[in-house]
Specification:
The chain has two helices and no strands. It is mainly α.
């Protein structure tokens, strides 16, 4: 029974180390993908700003 638990524990350790190594080596790619998705969502949520007028009126509209 102890041998079986030892093999299971060893297999779990190997899988954990392999998964951690994979994530560590791919962290830049994963991070860039998440940032790109976040920017796409944020850009879609921000409304388009209106353009500036070509001319404006006087500073004080009550003086002539």
């Amino acid at each position: 029974m102890i041998k079986i638990l030892t093999y299971i524990n060893t297999a779990a350790l190997v899988i954990t180390v392999a998964g951690g190594t994979f994530l560590y080596t791919q962290r830049t790619k994963i991070t860039n993908h998440i940032v790109d998705q976040a920017l796409t969502v944020i850009k879609g949520a921000i409304p388009k700003t209106p353009g500036l007028p070509s001319s404006t009126g006087p500073v004080n509209p009550f003086t002539k």
